Amino acid sequence: MVCLGNICRSPLAEGILKTKIEEKGLDWSVDSAGTGSWHIGEQPDPRSIEKADQYGIDLRHQRARQIRPNDLKEYDLILAMDSSNYQDIIRIAPDDTEKKVELIMNYVQSGHNQSVPDPYWDDDGFEQVYQMLDQATDAIIEKHLS
Ligand code: 4NP
After folding, report:
1. I need a surface site. Which of 18, 81, 133, 136 has the fewest CB within 10 A?
2. Is 60 an active-site residue?
3. DSSP string spanning 14-29?
C-alpha cells in the first residue's frame, strides 16, 4: 500500500486489509510505505488513527517508511493510492516489476484509474478515504481468492 507520506491513506489501507485477512485466516504479508521521505519514523496522522479507531482498527503501532526498489521485488502487488504515487513508483521499479504496480481503485472499477484523494489538507476527507479503501480491500481479497 503506497501513498505520498505514508501517514494518511496507506496506513489506513494497511490496517483495513490486515484486519480482513486476519479475519479470513489468510497468510498474506501486508505493509505500507510512502514515496516521500518527510514523515519517516512517524506514527500515522492522528486523523487516520481516529478514523480507524471508529471502525475498531488500531494503527498506533505503524511507523512511516519510504518505499525502496527492493519492495517491488519482495511483494507480489504494489498498490498506489493515486496516479502521482503510481508514476513515482514506476520510476524506481526494477526491471520486470512494473507489472506488479496497480492503482488500488482499479480493483473497484477496472480501468477507471480513479485516485484515493489526498486528505492531508482536508479534515473532512478521512471518512471518504476509509469508505473507498474498505471497498477496494474487499475487492482485492475477492479477486485474489478466486
Ligand atoms: P498521505 O498524505 O500521502 O495519504 O500520507 C499526505 C501526508 C503528508 C503530506 C502529503 C500527503 N505532506 O505533504 O507532508
Report:
1. 18
2. no
3. HHHHHHHHHHHT----
